Structures are given as C-alpha cells and as structure tokens.
# Entry
Amino acid sequence: MRGNDKQQLDVFSYVSPEQRVPKTIPCVFFRFMTEEALRELQPRFNKLYAKSGRPSIAPEKLLRALLLQSAVLGAQRTAVDGTARL
# Structure
C-alpha cells in the first residue's frame, strides 16, 4: 500500500521552509522542477503499489531525499575540489 506524501511543516517551526528561503536562490527552482516531475509520475506510482496492506513510505519522499543528498554531495565536492560530479 502506498503511503501518503503529507509533509509535516509545523513540527519544528511555525514558519514554513517556503517562507524562510528567498525565492531568488537556485534551490527554489530545483524544488519546483522536482515537484512538477513527481506530479507527472504520480499515476505510475499509484499503479505500482497494492491497494491494501501496511502503508509504505511515499515514493515522492524517497526521491526528494535522494535528490537532496546528491545536491548536497555535489555542493560539497565543488567546495572541496572545484568540480561537481553528480
């Protein structure tokens, strides 16, 4: 069974990440592109998961986490040796 992609924004702060991050930095555009792609993939995800059973972690959450990890890793490599290898 496919889990929900509900984001708990108010767990640690009363201000959402969208309000904290300036709209002019590149990661905002990167997130917009990611959300658009995940919306297009949603029908495919729905077909892959069973209708009953224990809910799993939503595939959108897993993909967002992987993209964030690779972006951070690329930024760290760039800071260390001046080249990004994503």
In short: The chain has a mean pLDDT of 78.
